[in-house]
Amino acid sequence: MASYRKLGKDNWQYIVDYKDESGKRKFKTKSGFRTKSAAKEIAEELEITLKKNKNIINRDMLFTDYYEKWIHTHKLGRYSKSTDTAYRTAKKLVNEHFRGLKLSDLTMDHYQIFINDISKTRALETVRKNHQKVSSALRHAWHSGIIPIDVTYNVKLSGLPGKSPADKFMEEEELNKFIEELKKSSNLTWTSHYMLILQSSTGMRIAEVMAITFDDIDFKNETLRINKSWDYKDTRTFKDTKNGVHRTIDLDRPTLAWLKEYVIFQKERMLSSRFDNPKNLLFTNKYFEPLTVDGVNETMKSVCVRIGIGTYTTHHLRHTHASKLLSGGVDIEIVAERLGDTSQTIQEVYAHVLQGQRDRNKDLVKKISASIH
Length: 373
Prior knowledge:
This protein is mostly helical. The chain has helices spanning 36-59, 63-74, 81-97, 108-119, 124-143, 172-185, 191-202, 206-210, 253-272, 293-307, 314-327, 332-339, 343-349, 351-371; strands at residues 2-8, 11-19, 25-33, 217-218, 223-226, 229-230, 238-239, 247-250.
């Protein structure tokens, strides 16, 4: 980036601030220009040249080295330890499959072969997660002008069968029985019941539910703000949401009524307790500490056993909510926004639900198309 200063009459100087291929900060300066415009004209040309030279050097890097540098610059240490582990696992795959290959030599065929190879021994969902972590670096190189094309474009994902899609969701009858039992058997001291009701009606991640504070709920406008999550694995405090996506979602009135009842109870308990709630968390035990995920899942398991349905976890509630919205005809972009996911992720994870929609609408599409004639 260039800056300019006047050294005297008819004497302007430019200072170009840049980083060399090793990431070290350097400067190039020149003075003696009669006007600032004259200095700016030369400095801008110099910046373009420096950028081109840097990209040429980067193109000659091995992709394994580039990926190592990229994850350290953009990913490691920014999120959770589990996220760091996932990127290091992806790095091992890059080192194994792209050894000795320069960025400048990469093609779409190279990347498709990589995906085909890792698909032979991994479930489709695992392949998808590793693809996301490797393709992000390659798209960054493309957007930076280091490589001329997006070599990950239109890649075809495959993999071994994982769990059946149906195993990820409660059937509607199961969900209705589950919610009915939660409400029937709950009391205001059973925080996990209220967490499960909220997750069922919003599709939130359990870490996002754990991080809700009193000021996140807007009863007047019937909305809930989701701008943080709870790091229950490592730091036991707030962290950013997954993917850094913040959103405000609508709440239905029955859910709001249950929440309001619980909010009033919690506020009264705070007033009469000798314990503090410094983080203003809504869902806590009597000591104003957040519940554990294992504890909430145990509650869910016991409810499922009582009503005689399959064994589910809190993450199944997220999938069930999304599946219910899609089956009900809600646009995929709206579902993605509500869940804090991308449309692409929704399409991949809920492919069977979307196919069901297509099948149900086949005759309607034909009828509308025929009406054109």
